Amino acid sequence: MARSSDFARWQGLRRPRGAARCGSGETMATNEADREEVPSDGDPAEGAFLDLHVQREALERRLVLVQQRQQFGTNADEIARAGTEEREALLDLDRVLTLIRAAEYRRQPGARRW
């Protein structure tokens, strides 16, 4: 799976400096090597678009870890808690992917504005 910084480079864009925000409000620090500054003449919408991909990447990572806890856990309470966290992560991921699809549509030339 490509990392969001790879996606940004492929698009010819840069990733905003800062931490990735997860859907539940917590922040997750990104690796210093992954941080890149947005050019001063950059569009703020580009930064928001890239931030959505950072959120998606963090949520996907969170989802994998929760699924592994569920699969390999030994404590029944921990496995049940991981199932609840998995449902929350899937809801957050669905929300972020919907926002990404909307942002990608708005980036198309001649996109309709509602």
Protein model, in words:
With 114 residues, this protein is mainly α. It has one domain (4-107). It contains three helices and two strands. It has helices at residues 4-11, 44-72, 76-107; strands spanning 20-21, 27-28. The chain has a two-stranded antiparallel ribbon with strand order 1-2. α2 runs antiparallel to α3 (76-107). The protein is elongated and about 55 Å long. The relative contact order is 0.14.
Number of helices: 3
Strand content: under 5%
Using DSSP, what is the number of strands?
A: 2
Largest sheet report: 2 strands, antiparallel
- Helix-strand topology string: HEEHH
Number of domains: 1
* CA radius of gyration: 16 Å
| Strand line-up in the sheet with most strands | 1-2
Shape: elongated
- Helix fraction, binned, reads 55-70%
Q: What is the arithmetic mean of pLDDT?
A: 75
Oligomer: single chain
| Uncertain segments | 6-35, 37-41
Report the span from N to C terminus: 33 Å
Q: Which structural category fits the helices and strands?
A: mainly alpha
